[in-house]
Specification:
23 helices; Beta-Lactamase; Rossmann fold; seven-stranded mixed sheet; 549 residues; 3 domains; alpha/beta; binds zinc ion; 23% strand; single chain
Amino acid sequence: MAKKIGELLKEKGYVTDEMFTVAYAQQRITGQLIGEALQQLGFVTSIEMAKVLSEQTGIPYINIRDIDIPKEILQLITRDVAESLECLPIGKENGRLNVGVVNPANVLSIDRITKLTGMPVNMLIVDSDSFKEAVERVYYFLENPILSMLEETIGHMVKTVGADPNLISKLTELILQDGVRREATDIHITPESNAMHVFYRVDGVLQYGHCIPKASQAGITSKIKIMASIDIAEQRLPQDGFFNYTFLRKKYDIRVSTIPTIFGENIVLRLLSGSGTLFRFDSLGYEKDEVNKLEKVFHKPFGILLVTGPTGSGKTTTLYAALRQLKLLEKNVITVEDPVEYRLSFVRQTQVNTKSGYNFTLAARNFMRQDPDVMLIGEIRDEETASIAIRASITGHLVLSTLHTNDAVGAIPRLLDLGVEKYNVTAVLVGVIAQRLVRKICPACKAKYELTDSDNKYLADIGYTIKASNIYYGKGCELCFDTGFLGRLAVGEVLVLDDELKELINEGASVIKIKHVAVEKGMRTMLENALIKLEAGVTSLHEIQRVLG
Ligand SMILES: [Zn+2]
């Protein structure tokens, strides 16, 4: 007898009785389904729901984002039908049609698909959020082949001398749409001597996009500056602004920055959607033993926990995975972020506003009056914020924050630099997580990889012997824009401070010494964790070298 979804969710530790109480209370007001309420309250994500549903029904779960759906398969049913039946054809296998379904109990939908396509159907469970997004995306780009539209527009520009405002508007819109299609975090529009070039940053790496005629440079630049409320007359100084952009029913907050280069203004657009997917530690990429460590440190009642790494290393994502571990219904969790990248119910989220003067320091100073249990301070940048964080943790609060350091141990000298006394570091610092993101090999073009001599030399130099022979790489395909990678995962190191390590800090031991002892006591370094992912065939050796050196 299959278990009820609710029971499974509880068994997995995703949802507690208190959460159900709140979800039922909200359901009475809003009329939502209980599953919807649980998701909307952030207690469980749609991916987690889908996986539980898969476990309950025995129907495999599939991540719809990992599939390059062939055009002819997509054309088997229309967008309207896909949307209303909550089914999406994703591929053919042994004469059967693979169909992603949100609700496998909906047999009538499956019947309809079989009738419409004349093919027997193989069900696979997809999660509702990805399904909605996928339907929007795949049908939109099926009807609007963006690359050929871009080529066509640029072609017209080459032919028209001067700048046609309609073409400029169209091209700007297409560049933004292509950014969304590639899931870029940033779009770079870079002037050179003879032309302008567009690049997209995807999964941390720049991808070349398009080439725009020089004659359109002024038009494109002005267009974007106007959208972002930036002074178009000023071309010799860096400027910044922002605008809102809605595409495929999703809202983006686009931050624009310009700098004057020798060939004109270089423009970078940062795309923020404010609706990142929430993860748990294991789905971020942490190994089981590391997850146990992380859960332990984040359950400390007070102290400081730091996540370190360069910009774009997923620090916020990890902090949010940590917040989800906390008993949010029993604790007052308050945050200041720049900007808010995730929304989580029952977390009092605030956002830095430079214009009004609301910054990390001001927020931290005022949080104490908000009766907090847990404070998330987006970043500790200066002495005042550091001292407020220390004071808060000494007085019995849990403070979560980030720092820019290369590794976990590096957080210790950084805190000392910020004026924190050694005895305060040892009194309140509970742990440090250093983290990087490595790209995952694209599942659609994954292939075996033979280690070369120089690879073997690299591994020998770092003193590592590969235990498994299944090393892979991505050959490159349409799904991954020929990069060989799709999505990223976190590789980190978790430093938990025990008495011996604290004593070393008090004695003023060097970071090398502290790290050495930490490793001796079982801390796995970022590199070691990355190599575990290599041996598991999840990432490639060159990717590890790119990220970790
Ligand atoms: Zn690929």
